[in-house]
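--- STAGE predict ---
source: upstream dedup step, 1 unique chain passed
mode: sequence only
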Amino acid sequence: MISSAARVTVGLGYSLETFFADSSVPRRDRIQLSGLRGEVLSFQVICRSDRQGEVGLDVSGALAASATARRIDLAHVEHPTYREKPENRIGRAPGFYPDPLIANAPWKTYPGQTRGIWFTLPIPSQAPAGRSRLKIRVRSGGRRVAELAVDVQVVSATLPEQQLKVTHWFHNDCLQSYYGFEAWSAEHWRIAEQYLRNAAEHGVNTILTPVFTPPLDTAVGTERPTMQLVDVEVTGRDEYRFGFGNLEKWMDLCRRCGMMGFEISHLSTQWGAKFAPKIVAKVNGRMRRIFGWETRASGPEYRKFLLQFLPGLVSVLRRKGASTRAFLHVSDEPQVAHLADYRAVRDILRQGAPELPVLEALSNIEFYREGAVDRPCPASNHAQAFLDARVPHLWTYYCCGQTDRVSNRFLDFPGARNRILGWQLHKFGFEGFLQWGFNHWYAGLTGELLDPYTTADGGRLLPPGDAYVVYPGKDGPVDSIRWEVFREGLQDMRALQLLARLAGRTPPGDAARLLALAPIKDMFTYPRSMGWILRQRERVNAAIARRA
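--- STAGE serialize ---
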């Protein structure tokens, strides 16, 4: 901590720390970080002043050109995470929580308030191995008030490519509602690209693909805005013609942005597989809805539709080289009581697209045992039964229901509880991870647009931040602290995988000793502290450096 006569206090914070407006400034003017080439490091500069003004930064050092500084703004949290013990949260809800990261904005101080700057430091692929110092000079009122130093140890190895499949559901209709464009207009494609690139930069490599308007988080009998990639024309009684031009354009864009896998949006309604999604088509030259809540998903009309649509879809996926990296969805989060309806729709998909596996977020292993699901994706608090059964190709997910002890990325959860997920995904060998809210800015079960900066809980329905990790900016996404920390967890996972490969060359048992993951017992039991993650990651990096 460094103080000046102007009563400005400045210090350095780690990425997993949370600094509220009334928090004390950390007593550090120097920290040490390490990382592999290709990794993105983060830290915070925290400042508190007795007067209003602007703070300036001068950054120097070999890695200075790579560094980005963004102002940490506050999001309003009124509805705290439900059914969670206070000791498992950082607490303080309701209130203002540091989360949005605002680029190209002045850093202002306010009397008696603690505010921060988030530094993002990508390690270039050609960075020389060894120690490098990043110097940060802090100015206030035209005078230098602090000098800070971040020592970065660059490990002589490159972070390996991510193998884990990761999806955070991408909501095109929320983009449309916020930015006001027409669906699949030139502006839609332009804005969507900004968000797709952001998702890929944070580890998302599998993308929800709205062949039809996704029937997700929609109250029975209501509709979300139409967001349908596939053109449909009714050509006769139970006969259809399909246009896949926008789907192919979407796939090309997603691949340019870094996406490799495609989740075909759900082909029946959520929580039960009872009804068809909203599908619009040209009928006698006019557009109208031909399927929806009035249509049984396993009924004869929709069955005939799917058996004409699915072969065309498969043909497009084959032509685009994506048939081995595509997944179908039947119904999100079905329960055992829905198994008969679910199986009926699954049988239609098996007949129309036998080569495409079904990936589903669910928590009852009966769906897998009865062959209704090929890629089960249980909630993290229900994953143990699937792990015990040694289910292959296992995914996991969390959402609003995963509040008790397990990892999550809510605004009122500590950063370590977010980042530990990467370590768990590695230890338990999951193939994929799913989360439903990349940019869901609607009130729960409606198409009512909310302001995520001031309403973090989906309209007093959800834990804060459950529905999104990016905020809407003027011309693209605004990152969050939680999104940066989630990426750090995936980077930890990739470093662990590299060390496991390198340690595999050593005598048996040495890999387990090096990785030291024994404290992670299951999805509920794991080290809770920031210190454990930071210390253990340093040990991993040091072990990689010795073997690289």
